[in-house]
Amino acid sequence: MEIRQLKSFVTVARVGSFTKAAEMLDYAQSTITAQVQSLEEELDNRLFERLGRKVVLTREGEKLLAYADQILKLSAEAREVLSGSAAPRGALSIGAPESLCVYRLPGLLHKYRKMYPAVEITLKIGTCADFIQWLRSNEIDVALFLEKKMNIQDLIARPLIYEPMAVLAGSGHPLARKEQIGLYDLQGEYLILSERGCSYRSAFEDMLNKAGVRPSSSLEFGSVEAIKKCVISGLGITLLPRVAVEAEVAEGQLVDLNWSGPDFNMTTQIVYHKDKWISPALQALLDLAGETIK
Known about the structure:
Elements: H1 3-15, H2 18-25, H3 29-43, E1 48-51, E2 54-57, H4 59-83, E3 90-96, H5 98-103, H6 105-115, E4 119-125, H7 128-136, E5 142-147, E6 155-163, E7 165-170, E8 190-194, H8 199-211, E9 217-221, H9 224-232, E10 238-241, H10 246-250, E11 254-257, E12 266-273, H11 280-292
Parallel strand pairs: 3-4, 3-5, 8-9
Antiparallel strand pairs: 1-2, 5-12, 6-12, 7-10, 7-11
Helix pairs in contact: 1-2, 1-3, 1-4, 2-3, 6-11
């Protein structure tokens, strides 16, 4: 099992195409095909199903992918350590929820790219549960969490900034006329929520359940922008980080309801595994995040 075989395998798995993988790696397609076939023969397992032009991982391929990612990361780390260079370079994989990708990460990544152009950054969007799994399996190097202050034994969390949350309605919604609202004002209301696994959605639903408050129904979106559009149109009530809605509130499209209920206590944190090797690239990101997101 060779590094170049694993790199070809991982690239095909990510892009779903032997042709695209060959273009990305600057190989002939026949070379990519031969490397994957050689790997399949060595492991005595079919790694891909080839359905016309579509290429998908088999169950055995999915199992190998997690190990291949780790092997390639460790190989890159070993080369960096042995090179003797302290300058940040190589690859860095970052996990972040969509809200932070849009409203916190751009400024950080813009500064980082200008300062360390030799570092190749990959961004993976997911939920807090995804990030915990990916950090433990070494699929990502570091993650930004929007969460209550974390205390997980095998993860190191550095708080960056407290994130006020906003309960929001469209300007024409009846609750927009109230001086303040609490949990019981949401009885029978229609909620527009982020996807399951989102930390602030979970906190919101826990509050409502403990108070015995039953919304009439709810609609779920994976996109903050889609949630805002639905609420602006008058479809229902939502909860979002205030940083994500400042423009719409200032323009009068959304109303930040004066929430008198419990505090959501959300904080943006940068998190990595306690056993993770802190490469110069990762250390530079940790330092810059502390300076930029505050």
